[in-house]
Design a protein that fits this description.
With 184 residues, this protein is of the alpha+beta class. The chain has helices at 7-15, 23-34, 66-69, 100-123, 141-161, and strands at residues 40-41, 52-54, 59-64, 74-75, 87-88, 127-132. It has 5 helices and 6 strands; from the N terminus they run H-H-E-E-E-H-E-E-H-E-H.
């Protein structure tokens, strides 16, 4: 299918696509807020500037669009360079056939940058969650968000396992009176 817009029209159209505050993010944020989770948005001090940051859980949540981040797209090496013919589309992400080289390079750069940000966060002790656009459809959102909730609770438990209290030692043959005993 050929593009019906001129390059200038296409550029203008694509430049108006928002990067934060998207409908997908709003769905996730609304669900988290309604279930008692408090968060910060687009925190610049956290590497990668995650969409949602839950500091108490030390968790960064990225809400990714399937197209922009190449969900499920397989990019394989062909010789020395990454070629457009070696890219396989996925069920939820189809790379356009017009100007294909540009889109393959753009999606590849996005994937590389995402992976670098995730690695930095992991090294700094953060938990990273990626929620994909295809996971937020009307039929899948409840299941997806319950999985997020389970992961958040596991993250909280992992944080507190590091701070295990020392076992309480007591002597059973103590000579101290019990609270219910009479002292004469």
């Amino acid at each position: 299918m050929t593009d019906t817009m001129t390059p200038e029209q296409r550029h203008r159209c694509m430049s108006h696509i928002k990067g934060s505050g998207t409908k997908l993010e709003l769905k996730v944020r609304r669900w988290l807020w309604n279930h008692g989770y408090r968060y910060r948005l687009n925190v610049r001090s956290v590497p990668g500037k995650p969409d949602i940051v839950l500091r108490a859980y030390r968790t960064a949540i990225f809400v990714n669009g399937c197209f922009w981040h190449g969900h499920g797209v397989r990019m394989s090496e062909c010789g020395n360079a990454l070629m457009c013919e070696c890219v396989e589309n996925s069920a939820c992400c189809k790379i356009p056939s017009t100007n294909r080289e540009f889109w393959v390079n753009k999606i590849r750069r996005n994937q590389e940058r995402d992976q670098q940000n995730y690695n930095i966060l992991y090294k700094n002790g953060w938990h990273v969650m990626v929620i994909w656009e295809c996971q937020l459809t009307a039929s899948k959102i409840e299941h997806t968000m319950h999985e997020v909730e389970v992961l958040l609770e596991e993250n909280m438990l992992a944080l507190y396992k590091k701070h295990t209290p020392l076992p309480y030692s007591y002597d059973e043959e103590s000579t101290l009176p019990m609270a219910a005993e009479e002292t004469v």
